[in-house]
């Protein structure tokens, strides 16, 4: 499936509910970039078999998706823009922090998501995420941003990096 938001037919109603809540929350409190990546996360969860979204309320899963993307991108860090403490995120969703934390942890465990995970980094922050640019070259980890342009282009061609930073 090349479309990151493509979900199985059986999951489309649930995805629509979760996605709508994500869109409304991010439009009001964060930005479109958070909405996009959070919806991609929800779509990924819809494609898991069995989907964890089959159990629980859509607003809980919407909160958990934004919570995971927020954690991954350090939304709670005051130096970030936008910035929001994760406790406040839960309150604004109307979800208890323990419920949101539990669901978020289940997502992180199921998809093996950690801090600065390149798969779930906001597009505007990819360039600053050091994990995006670490590539194994001849047995050594290299920050490809410091490599010659030819190596950057080859890494991009191989799908190891999202774009050529030297251009």
Write the layout of secondary structure elements.
Elements: H1 12-29, H2 32-47, H3 58-72, H4 86-93, H5 97-111, E1 134-137, E2 140-143, H6 149-157
Antiparallel strand pairs: 1-2
Choose one word for the global shape: globular
Q: Give the oligomeric state.
A: single chain
Q: In whole angstroms, how far apart are the ends?
A: 29 Å
Helical amount: 40-55%
Sheet with most strands: 2 strands, antiparallel
Overall average residue pLDDT: 93
Taking all Cα atoms into account, the compactness measure Rg is 17 Å
Question: How many beta-strand elements?
Answer: 2
Low-confidence stretches: none
Strand content: under 5%
What is the spatial order of strands in the main beta sheet? 1-2
> What is the overall number of helices?
6
The computed structural class is mainly alpha
The ordered H/E elements are HHHHHEEH
């Amino acid at each position: 499936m090349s479309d990151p938001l493509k979900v199985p037919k059986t999951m489309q109603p649930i995805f629509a509910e979760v996605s709508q809540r994500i869109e409304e929350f991010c439009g009001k409190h964060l930005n479109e970039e958070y909405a996009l990546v959070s919806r991609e996360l929800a779509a990924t969860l819809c494609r898991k078999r069995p989907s964890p979204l089959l159990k629980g309320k859509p607003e809980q899963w919407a909160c958990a998706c934004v919570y995971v993307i927020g954690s991954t991108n350090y939304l709670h860090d005051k130096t970030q823009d936008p910035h929001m403490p994760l406790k406040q995120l839960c309150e604004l969703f109307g979800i208890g922090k323990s419920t949101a934390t539990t669901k978020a942890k289940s997502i992180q465990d199921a998809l093996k998501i950690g801090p600065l995970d390149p798969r779930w980094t906001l597009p505007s922050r990819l360039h600053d995420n050091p994990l995006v640019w670490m590539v194994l070259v001849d047995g050594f980890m290299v920050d490809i941003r410091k490599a010659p342009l030819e190596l950057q282009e080859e890494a991009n061609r191989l799908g190891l990096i999202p774009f050529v930073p030297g251009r």
